[in-house]
Specification:
This protein is α+β, with helices and mostly antiparallel strands. It has helices at about 10-25, 65-75, and strands spanning about 30-35, 40-45, 50-60, 85-95, 100-105. The protein has a five-stranded antiparallel beta sheet, with no helix packed on it.
């Protein structure tokens, strides 16, 4: 029994999906996770469980509530226009579990 790697015997929908995934290879993706983190990196691979592998990845986190409170106290009356940067760190090669992915964006 042989498998068709190129997808020529698959249904047209599966072939289109494979072509779309292939077009994303090595492109910059932004993956939003259930815990509100965002991962940015080059798309390398996925699997049947929708896990995604990114290389040269960074993790971005929203400011903590304590950081927001401190910045609001420092700013005083202008706290309604408060802006804080997200914290980031370099992660390298990572696997983002599919069950934790809420949104995927391309650059």
């Amino acid at each position: 029994m042989s498998s068709d790697i190129e997808g020529t015997n698959d249904q047209p929908e599966k072939t289109a999906a494979k072509e779309y995934l292939a077009s994303l290879l090595n492109k910059q993706l932004f993956i939003h996770a259930t815990d509100e983190r965002i991962f940015a990196g080059e798309f390398k691979c996925t699997d049947n469980e929708c896990n995604i592998i990114l290389s040269h990845a960074y993790e971005y986190r929203h400011p903590t509530s304590k950081a927001v409170e401190t910045a609001a106290k420092t700013k005083g009356k202008d706290a309604a226009t408060l802006k804080l940067d997200m914290t980031s760190r370099f992660m390298g090669l990572i696997v983002v579990p599919g069950k934790h992915i809420t949104k995927i964006e391309t650059a």
